[in-house]
Amino acid sequence: MCEPLSVGVHACRRADVGAEKSVLIMGAGPIGLVTMLSARAFGAPRIVIADVDDHRLSVAKSLGADAVVKVSGNAEDLAGEIERIQAAMGGDIDVSLDCAGFSKTMSTALEATRPGGRVCLVGMGHNEMTVPLTSAAIREVDVVGIFRYKDTWPLCLEFLRSGKIDVKPLITHRFGFSQGEVEEAFEVSARGRDAIKVMFNL
After folding, report:
1. From CA 53, how far away is CA 33, in angstroms rounded?
2. Which candidate among 76, 152, 168, 201 keeps its CA 20 to 30 Å from the CA of 161?
C-alpha cells in the first residue's frame, strides 16, 4: 500500500499542502482517498472531496473527509457544483488536487480554488483537456502536475508506522492466487462498485 500512498504524498508535497490550507480533492477513487489521507497527515485542517459515486463519497466520509459533494459528469452543472463545493468548504479553497484528470474535474478545481491558490493535476483521465486557463491565470492560480512519485517511501513508511495514516480500510477485497481467484479479482476490480483496493494473498 506504500505504492498508491506514495502518489498522494507526492501530490501533497507538490501542492504544498500543510496546516492552515484547506484542500479540495476531485475524485474519491483509490488515489483520491490516499491523497485525502495524505493531506490530513500533512496538516490540512479541512478537506472536501467531490465525486460522482455515492459509495465512494461514503467511504471518503468514513475515512475523515470533512464534507463530501456529489457532482455529475455534465459540464453544464459546473457553476452550480462549484458553488456547492465552496459552500461545503465554508471558506477559501487554498489547494485543489484533481485525482480524476478530466476536463470537468480540472475545470472545477481551477475555478473553485481561491486567487493565489494552487491546483495539482494528479489523475490522468484524458490526454488532452479543455480548461479555463485564462481565468486561472487572471486569478494567479498556480498549476502543477505529478507523475507517480519520487523519494516518498521513507515518509510513507513513517506515516504508516506512526499510525498517522491507516490504509487498511482501503483494502476491500482479498483473493488467493489460483487461476480462478486471480480472474475473479480482476473482474471485481474492473467493476468498481464497492471495490477500492483488491489484494492477493501470496
Report:
1. 13
2. 201
